[in-house]
TrEMBL record:
<dbReference type="InterPro" id="IPR000782">
    <property type="entry name" value="FAS1_domain"/>
</dbReference>
<dbReference type="GO" id="GO:0031012">
    <property type="term" value="C:extracellular matrix"/>
</dbReference>
<feature type="domain" description="FAS1">
    <location>
        <begin position="148"/>
        <end position="310"/>
    </location>
</feature>
<dbReference type="GO" id="GO:0007155">
    <property type="term" value="P:cell adhesion"/>
</dbReference>
<dbReference type="Pfam" id="PF02469">
    <property type="entry name" value="Fasciclin"/>
</dbReference>
<dbReference type="GO" id="GO:0030198">
    <property type="term" value="P:extracellular matrix organization"/>
</dbReference>
<dbReference type="GO" id="GO:0050839">
    <property type="term" value="F:cell adhesion molecule binding"/>
</dbReference>
<dbReference type="GO" id="GO:0005615">
    <property type="term" value="C:extracellular space"/>
</dbReference>
<dbReference type="InterPro" id="IPR036378">
    <property type="entry name" value="FAS1_dom_sf"/>
</dbReference>
<feature type="domain" description="FAS1">
    <location>
        <begin position="1"/>
        <end position="144"/>
    </location>
</feature>
<dbReference type="InterPro" id="IPR050904">
    <property type="entry name" value="Adhesion/Biosynth-related"/>
</dbReference>
<protein>
    <submittedName>
        <fullName>Fasciclin-1</fullName>
    </submittedName>
</protein>
Length: 321
């Protein structure tokens, strides 16, 4: 079994992973035993040596949620990851409440490279499909859930955010996102979100992605970037909305962003349509926007990946004939 495999690894490639579980009371091992079919993403020994990781190991509650982020109910092997990824980046729930992993497969020199993203960290699978009687172990090169990149580095490297990154490059908007003295909450439309605007507002979309219109794209991105002395998680925003009884005002670069953030049960589901989970919905300007991926942590902020930009057709108006 997977449990037995981890115990047998007391001196092997997953020695550190096993030790962290045992140093934190070993309950995670009991959970693994009780789950039946299971998939574990096990960080390698080297992954635990990173400074950012070592700094978090003293916080027992944090370590527990980090360990849970590496556990998936059910068997998930490379063939299934391929299948899930046929249409889009695969989103898979973990046993850590409302935390998902995102698998991506790219081809390098004829070899498949599988990456997995969780809690703001992008890790590469070093050894996949270590099969056990009740599931799989995949060995990864980083510990998930302990961020090590700034908001800018995250945008630049995440395959889901490349269009927003590109827009921000036109006007040098992105430069500020490396500032570690600031705290950013960035609502980032994923690539699919921009593709939807191409269908809804073809000429607006076309102009936005031309460098000549960088003034317009910058003002739209500024609307999505909250700059404050703290970050706002989705739970924070839900609580603030409930408290105010209406919308909340968040400070942005030039102005403020007026949004209402609520939870909606069952509007998010996996590709099969069989597994549903509660998701977050933002209401902006009478439009409802789903949060595709909440709380992607970075060293100087947090990113919420959204399903549609906060955009009106009139945002890109060009005067003169």
């Amino acid at each position: 079994t997977v449990t037995q495999f981890l115990q047998d690894n007391e001196n092997g490639a997953l020695r550190k992973f096993y030790n962290v579980i045992m140093d934190n009371g070993g309950e995670v091992l009991t959970d693994i035993s009780n789950l039946g079919e299971i998939t574990i993403l096990a960080p390698s020994n080297d992954a635990w040596a990173a400074k950012s990781v070592e700094n978090n190991l003293g916080n027992r509650e944090k370590v527990r949620s980090i360990l849970n982020m590496h556990i998936i109910k059910g068997k998930l092997n490379v063939a299934q990851i391929h299948q899930k990824n046929a249409k889009m980046i695969a989103q898979v729930p973990t046993v850590n409440d409302r935390t998902f992993l995102y698998f991506n497969i790219r081809n390098e020199n004829g070899e498949d490279v599988i990456t997995v993203e969780g809690g703001g960290v992008n890790a590469t699978v070093l050894q996949a499909d270590v099969a056990q009687t009740n599931g799989y172990v995949h060995i990864i090169d980083k510990v998930l859930g302990i961020p090590y990149t700034t908001v800018l580095e995250k945008l630049e490297t995440d395959p889901m955010m490349s269009d927003t990154f590109k827009l921000g490059q036109f006007s040098d908007f992105n430069n500020q996102l490396n500032n570690t003295k600031r705290r950013f909450t960035y609502f980032v439309p994923r690539d699919k979100a921009w593709q939807k605007t191409k269908l809804d507002y073809p000429s607006t979309h076309k102009k936005l992605f031309m460098e000549d219109f960088s003034y317009h794209s910058r003002s739209i991105l500024e609307r999505h970037l909250v700059i404050a002395d703290k970050v706002y998680t989705m739970n924070d925003l839900v609580a603030m909305t409930a408290e105010s009884g209406d919308s909340v005002l968040l400070p942005t670069y030039r102005d403020s962003l007026k949004v209402k953030v609520e939870e909606e049960a069952g509007h998010l589901h996996d590709d099969s349509g069989l597994i549903e989970w509660t998701g977050y919905v933002i209401t902006w300007n009478f439009k409802k926007i789903n949060v595709y991926r909440p709380d992607v942590e970075c060293t100087n902020g947090i990113i919420h990946v959204i399903d549609y930009p906060m955009l009106e057709e009139r945002d890109v108006v060009v005067n003169g004939g």
